[in-house]
Each structure stands twice: as structure tokens, then as C-alpha cells.
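Q: Given only this backbone (685 positions), what sequence would you predict?
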């Protein structure tokens, strides 16, 4: 039997490069959408599926993920869509970071062993269809901390397995040498310099004494570094910059602020931990005067240098994907993981006297829009929530999370032709993201190339990935059933008094006009919807009072920055017209490719159990008591959860901290709540 890779590649001999399916599909083509698991469960009080229901659900999910994997393999061979490598698609309502922000705080964030320098901001949300109700507060404010500094640089190494050869897009040469790691380090400098240029007098960019090995081709014919990066025909200033970018340890420092406890560096500051000898080779440009200053270039000048390097080597889509890679570096710091970059290729020499080329206009636009990318990058919670959100599906309820995730997390990585190739599974997941969540495709490619994938999979595997309410409006990609307003009347048609539990949870989260000391100010800590229906007579007043209302939903309005003069600026975000709703029909349908050859591994129910416990516990601890429904007597929601996140700090093969340093989400939320100025009137989320 042919394995999935053979089938996918065989298909390419008779198939043109993949194009997105149109809204009206050719009847001759089969289409593949996420499986509809709703018809499998027919008892609204039976939380745990029976063996037959599990087998049916697992088989449907296998069909979906297996065939999606084959489609990803086809794109890996033919090239991804050009739009998949465009980071601009991730900028939905992302605000642009400002220079004159008022308050900063120092705190430990996430698992990072070092302190972070943060700015406080908040978002404004408004309840829709509230004109005739009057039972909910019109607005809700949600605070957020954005990291703009770190005490220590982020460690990186050249040793990543993914994208050691760049797969390319359908519009360019494919299977190219990977320069992603080199470009990402250059982008880290650009982002850092841009941030420093907007700070106070204490902020500055400096070179350190650490330099990459420099191999001058015209005068040195021996002692070349193990990996020599050809930077072309340049002047001494340019060569000095590249020597800092590829230096062991810290080649440059971006000092954002000096405080009593020390210096805070830009959140993209890096330190190489490599044993690889990476150096530069270059030829002197005789047309450049010998006026070497030794000063660090501005962010704009550094962008021009990096763009010219990309044009010199015809890197194409690697240039924007490398920006997405650099954007994930603060998330590595938040989770205390080492960045693993693809080993750079031995670069080919170019002809002498190569004239500078015109920088691609789309690249210039990307540089001009850096403040938007910086805001997203400075919020590791939103980044991780978005990346984990690739695995979420609207129609998958809490008790079917295990059969939904099992094929892609446990069986696909062991497929023939995949398990034998280091890094291939992660590349497949990155391409699948482009099919399921095209808006964040470039971000997922960047996360894969920077070595963040083990952390993503670890966080999603237990059915309780990290969530951030701002992820959906900022990127346009839903993360949770709470992002979806639902549709139709609250009372299920033809049922008389049945209300979908997902709608009950949504109504409970609406801000009340009068505070009632119940614990619904924060969202559930799992994205998976509760299954089944509740009886209207079992609904508390918070819910029952809205059952005949037009459908309510908390909708993101804008971001708020507090400036040095005390004023508050409303930021509508990059694209005010960005999608703010998501239909419950699931992800876009995808052209089907038949495949086979994955091992059948026994299903583990841990993810479903953890997701079910979390989602029902959100109601059980609210202060109103346990609803009188049989589902609340199930042992899945009676189990004492002693482990919480303790295992999340381990089993991560690039973690650099111990269990003791793992900070819980609740502790972080407490710190944020304490940091919110009273005049904001912000709620916890």
C-alpha cells in the first residue's frame, strides 16, 4: 500500500499547483470539510461517549486529518500559496504600538526566569443588540500587559530541523537553501532598534565586543569559518553590522530602560549559544569611502541592509516569513524555551560589483507597518493563543476533544515517510495552518521555523490550551466558542424549553448592570464548547432573563493607550473592517485527496476529560450552586484536578527552566488586576 506522501506526490504528476477552492465547486471534485460530530451524541446528559460513539468520531476525524495531511504534502512539493507567506494577513484589529506611553511595570511573566518590562493598556468591548434589554452593562474593559523589555536576551542556537530547505511558494523557485535563521536575527535587530528609537534618553543601541568571524575574500584564503555567509560587496560599516548580527553571545544590545534593578533590553534581544562557527565572507566595495564610524545603524538602515542581502540571494518569501519568526521570539522568552533556528546554508559567491537592487514595494510597506507587528509580538499570550487556535474547531464539543486531536497529534507524526524525516511533521502542521487558518499562516510558519512547535503541541495536547480574548479580534482567527455569537433564537426551535449549553455559557459571561459577586468576569479556561442542551427551567436568572432577547454578544470595539500626559487614545487597529464574526459552519472546505498509511494508535481520553472538567467547573464554582442536571454527576466533572499546569513545565525538549519557576495563569491574572489603574474600571478576563 502506498504511503500518504507517495500518494500526494503521485497526484502532482497530473494536477496543477493547488489553488483555493472557489465558493462554487466543480461537481467532479470531492470536498473535505471538518467532520460534523454533533449527530454522534444523542443524550444531552451523557457526558462520556460510549465506545461506539468514540470509534465513529475518531474515524471521521482520521479521514479529515489524514487527507488534510496529504494536501499539505502536496503543497510542500508544489510550493505554498504566496498569501501564506504574507504576515500582513495576520493584522486584523492589531493596534500600533506608540512611543509616548505612560506607565511601565516590571513583573515576571509566564515561565520566564527573568523580569519583564511591561506597559499597561486595555480594550473596550460592547454588548450587541442591547437596546431593548437593559439587563446587561453596555461596555466591558479588559486590561492587558504588553512586554517591551526583558532583563536577559533570548537564547538561540542553529540546530532546528524544520525548514532546513525552504519549500518556497508557487510563484518562485522551490527547495532553496534556508536563510530563515539569518534573516530572523536581522529582523530582531530591526524590531529592537525601532522600539529603542521611540524611547527616552536612556534608550540606545550599541555594539558589543563579540563579533562573528570575518573572512575577507580578497586578502584571506584560509581559516574560513565552518559556515560562511556571503554578504556580498559591501563597506566596512555594513560588514561590522553583519558581524554583530551573527556574533556568538550578544553582538549588539538594545537598551530600552535603565532601572534600579538593572538594564532592560528590547524583547527581541538575542544571545547565540552556538557551537557552530558562523561567520561572514565579503568583498570590499571600492566605491564606498573609507569613513568607518562603528556606530549602529538605525532601524530603517538595518532594514535596507537586510533587504539588499535578501535580494542578493534571491530569497523571496523567506524575507517576510523571517519577520514572523522574529515575532515569536518574545513568546519563546515567555515560555522559557530556546529558539532553534534552521542551520544556515553555505552561501554561494556572487559576481563582483553587484549593483544594489530596488527593494520590493511590499517589503517597504511591511517595514512601515512595523508598529503593528510589534504590538502583536509584544503580547505572547495572544501569539500562543492564536497558534494553538489552529487546532480548535467550532463543532467539536468538550467531550469529543480527544478523538478530534488524536489523529493529528498521535498518528500523523508516525506516518510512513514522516516519522523518518526530522522536522517534517512540524512543516506539515505549518502548511495545514495555511489551509485551516490562512490569516495566521505566516505566523505559524515562523513559529515552526523558530522551534516553537513543541511548546504549541504541549499546550494543546491536554485539551486546555492558553486563551486570550484579544486573539480573535486582533488576528481574525477564532480561538474559542466564546468568540462566536451563535445563531438563531436562544430557545432551540421545536424543543419548547431547550437551550444550547454553549449559549448558556455565553449569556453568563455578559457583564451585568449590577455586580452580583458571581465568578463570571473571566472567560472559561478551555476553548471547547459544553455539549448538549439545558432546560430553560434550570437556567439561572442571568440566563433566563435573555432567552427571548435578540442574540447578545460582546464585540471588540477598540484598543486604548494611556499617554504620558494622562490622555487615552483609542486605536481602531490595523483594519477596522476586519471580520468580527465567525459562522459556526466550521472551517473552509478543502479539496480532497485520498490517502492512507497512518498507524492506528489507541485513543487516550485525557484531553476530553480535562476540557470537560474545565468547562463545567466554570459553572460549578460560580457561587450559585450546581445546576440540577445529571451531567454534573459524571465522574469527569467530579475529579479533583490536582495537577493543574504542573506537567506543562516539563516534557518540553527545549525548556530552560525548572518546575519551580512555572508561574500559573491565575497568579499572573492577579498581578495584572492589581496593576490596573482604578480609573480604567477594567475587569479581569
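A: Predicted residues:
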Amino acid at each position: 500500500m502506498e504511503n500518504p506522501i507517495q500518494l500526494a506526490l503521485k497526484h502532482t504528476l497530473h494536477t496543477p499547483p493547488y489553488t483555493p477552492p472557489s465558493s462554487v465547486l466543480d461537481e467532479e471534485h470531492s470536498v473535505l470539510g471538518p467532520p460534523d460530530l454533533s449527530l454522534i451524541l444523542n443524550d444531552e446528559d451523557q457526558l462520556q461517549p460510549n465506545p461506539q460513539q468514540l470509534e465513529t468520531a475518531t474515524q471521521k476525524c482520521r479521514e479529515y486529518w489524514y487527507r488534510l495531511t496529504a494536501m499539505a504534502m502536496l503543497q510542500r512539493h508544489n510550493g505554498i500559496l504566496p498569501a501564506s507567506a504574507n504576515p500582513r494577513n495576520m493584522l486584523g484589529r492589531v493596534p500600533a504600538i506608540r512611543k509616548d506611553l505612560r506607565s511601565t511595570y516590571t513583573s515576571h511573566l509566564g515561565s520566564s526566569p527573568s523580569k519583564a518590562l511591561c506597559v499597561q493598556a486595555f480594550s473596550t468591548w460592547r454588548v450587541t443588540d442591547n437596546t431593548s434589554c437593559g439587563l446587561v452593562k453596555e461596555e466591558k474593559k479588559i486590561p492587558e500587559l504588553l512586554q517591551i523589555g526583558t532583563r536577559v536576551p533570548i537564547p538561540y542556537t542553529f540546530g532546528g530541523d524544520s525548514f532546513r530547505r525552504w519549500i518556497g511558494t508557487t510563484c518562485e523557485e522551490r527547495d532553496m537553501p534556508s536563510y530563515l535563521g539569518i534573516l530572523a536575527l536581522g529582523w530582531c535587530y530591526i524590531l529592537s532598534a525601532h522600539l529603542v528609537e521611540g524611547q527616552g534618553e536612556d534608550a540606545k543601541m550599541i555594539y558589543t565586543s563579540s563579533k562573528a568571524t570575518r573572512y575577507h575574500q580578497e586578502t584571506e584564503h584560509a581559516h574560513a569559518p565552518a559556515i560562511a555567509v556571503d554578504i556580498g560587496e559591501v563597506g566596512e560599516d555594513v560588514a561590522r553590522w553583519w558581524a554583530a548580527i551573527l556574533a556568538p553571545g550578544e553582538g549588539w544590545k538594545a537598551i530600552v530602560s535603565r532601572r534600579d534593578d538593572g538594564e532592560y533590553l528590547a524583547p527581541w534581544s538575542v544571545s547565540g549559544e552556538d557551537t557552530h562557527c558562523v561567520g561572514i565572507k565579503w568583498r570590499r566595495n571600492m566605491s564606498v569611502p573609507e569613513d568607518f564610524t562603528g556606530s549602529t545603524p538605525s532601524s530603517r538602515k538595518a532594514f535596507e541592509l537586510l533587504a539588499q542581502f535578501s535580494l542578493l540571494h534571491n530569497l523571496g518569501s523567506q524575507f517576510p516569513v523571517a519577520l514572523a519568526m522574529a515575532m515569536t521570539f518574545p513568546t519563546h522568552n515567555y515560555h522559557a524555551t530556546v529558539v532553534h533556528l534552521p542551520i544556515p546554508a553555505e552561501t554561494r559567491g556572487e559576481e563582483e560589483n553587484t549593483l544594489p537592487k530596488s527593494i520590493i514595494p511590499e517589503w517597504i510597506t511591511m517595514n512601515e507597518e512595523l508598529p503593528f507587528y510589534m504590538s502583536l509580538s509584544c503580547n505572547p499570550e495572544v501569539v500562543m493563543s492564536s497558534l494553538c487556535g489552529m487546532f480548535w474547531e467550532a463543532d467539536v464539543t468538550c467531550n469529543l476533544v480527544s478523538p478530534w486531536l488524536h489523529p493529528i497529534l498521535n498518528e500523523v507524526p508516525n506516518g510512513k515517510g514522516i516519522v523518518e524525516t526530522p522536522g517534517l511533521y512540524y512543516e506539515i502542521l505549518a502548511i495545514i495552518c495555511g489551509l485551516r487558518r490562512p490569516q495566521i499562516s505566516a505566523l505559524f510558519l515562523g513559529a515552526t521555523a523558530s522551534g516553537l512547535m513543541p511548546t504549541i503541541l504541549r499546550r494543546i495536547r491536554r485539551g486546555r490550551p492558553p486563551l486570550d480574548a484579544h486573539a480573535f479580534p486582533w488576528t481574525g482567527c477564532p480561538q474559542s466558542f466564546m468568540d462566536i455569537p451563535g445563531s438563531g433564537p436562544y430557545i432551540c426551535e421545536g424543543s419548547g424549553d431547550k437551550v444550547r449549553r454553549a449559549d448558556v455559557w455565553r449569556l453568563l459571561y455578559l457583564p451585568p448592570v449590577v455586580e452580583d459577586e458571581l465568578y463570571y468576569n473571566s472567560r472559561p479556561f478551555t476553548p471547547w464548547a459544553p455539549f448538549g442542551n439545558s432546560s430553560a427551567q434550570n437556567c439561572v436568572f442571568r440566563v433566563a432573563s435573555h432567552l427571548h432577547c435578540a442574540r447578545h454578544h460582546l464585540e471588540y470595539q477598540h484598543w486604548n493607550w494611556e499617554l504620558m500626559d494622562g490622555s487615552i487614545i483609542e486605536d481602531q487597529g490595523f483594519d477596522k473592517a476586519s471580520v468580527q464574526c465567525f459562522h459556526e459552519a466550521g472551517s473552509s472546505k478543502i479539496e480532497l485527496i485520498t490517502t492512507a498509511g497512518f498507524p492506528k494508535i489507541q485513543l487516550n481520553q485525557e484531553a476530553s476529560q480535562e476540557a470537560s472538567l474545565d468547562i463545567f467547573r466554570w459553572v460549578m464554582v460560580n457561587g450559585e450552586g450546581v445546576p440540577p442536571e445529571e451531567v454534573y454527576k459524571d465522574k469527569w466533572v467530579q475529579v479533583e484536578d490536582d495537577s493543574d499546569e504542573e506537567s506543562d513545565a516539563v516534557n518540553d525538549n527545549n525548556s530552560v527552566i525548572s518546575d519551580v519557576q512555572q508561574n500559573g495563569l491565575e497568579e499572573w491574572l492577579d498581578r495584572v488586576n492589581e496593576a490596573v489603574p482604578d480609573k480604567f474600571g477594567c475587569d479581569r478576563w
